[in-house]
Design brief:
By secondary structure, this protein is of the alpha+beta class. The chain has one domain: 2-Layer Sandwich (Pseudouridine synthase), CATH 3.30.2350. It has helices at 3-9, 41-53, 81-92, 168-175, 226-236, and strands spanning 13-16, 20-25, 62-63, 72-78, 97-104, 112-122, 127-131, 139-150, 155-161, 199-207, 214-218. Strands 1, 2, 3, 4, 5, 6, 7, 8, 9, 10 and 11 form an 11-stranded mixed beta sheet that branches. Strand 8 and strand 9 (155-161) form a beta hairpin. It is globular and about 55 Å long.
């Protein structure tokens, strides 16, 4: 069975109604089409809905936001153009709260805090560099982090993303000496098998733009990775 077939068969729907569908994304999958030509999750979701609901026509699946390819976790797709428009407004007005889990090799000196940097994206290398002071073309980038617990070699952090910049969490944690496990681009000593990194979009909270209900969702990675499994078991114990 191909990787795409595996993903199609293992799509985990965390929430769905007539307007939106929220998926717990596997690491390694792209959300939207890019220059690689690999089939994106948006197309797989279309195929999934078409097959599941036996739809004869085209299925609408609008991309609301993205996660980096090696990152796992919650991704929202719009099932109607109205929902897409409304969610774009929520994104613009910063009314979707996003929290991540990150596994790092080096525990931050302070167990909780706010990081503020100015990020400059290098288009050629697809990297963002974090600066401690304002710089030309730098975008102010803010996140909150909190230490949760440790294994024998690694540490689990919870991240509250205040701004949404290119590679923001990866770049900012690297800047304070706490690179994410497996993230070679941002200072990790070695890669993970299959190229994923230990960063997961774990929580989403927002007011449904059409139903006006508060939606709060939490997930853990679908991966059978032993480090994620360790932390999951510790949190559930």
């Amino acid at each position: 069975m191909t990787l795409q077939a595996n993903i199609l068969n293992s799509i985990q729907i965390v929430y769905e109604d007539n307007h939106i569908i929220i998926i717990n994304k596997l690491p390694g999958q792209i959300v939207q089409g890019d220059k690689t030509g690999d089939k994106p999750l948006s197309e797989l979701v279309k195929e999934y809905i078409k097959k599941r609901d036996n739809k004869p026509g085209n299925v609408f699946c609008g991309v609301i936001h993205r996660l980096d390819r090696p990152v796992s976790g919650l991704v929202i797709f719009a099932k109607t153009s109205k929902a897409l428009s409304r969610f774009n407004e929520l994104i613009r007005d910063k009314k979707i709260n996003k929290k991540y889990l990150a596994v790092v090799k080096n525990k931050p000196t302070q167990l909780k805090g706010i990081l503020k940097h100015w990020l400059v994206k290098n288009e050629k290398n697809n990297l963002s560099k974090a600066y401690s002071n304002p710089v030309t073309n730098g975008l102010e980038s803010v996140l909150e982090y909190e230490y949760i617990l440790s294994s024998s070699n690694y540490h689990l952090l919870k991240i509250n993303l205040i701004t949404g910049r290119h590679h923001q969490i990866r770049s900012q944690l690297s800047q304070i000496g706490s690179s994410i496990k497996g993230d070679l681009k941002y200072g990790a000593e070695r890669s993970n098998q299959n190229g994923f990194i230990h960063l997961h979009s774990a929580e989403l909270e927002f007011e449904h733009p059409i139903k006006k209900e508060l939606i709060n969702l939490k997930t853990f990675p679908l991966s059978s990775d032993p480090i994620w499994e360790f932390f999951k078991n510790q949190l559930n114990s």
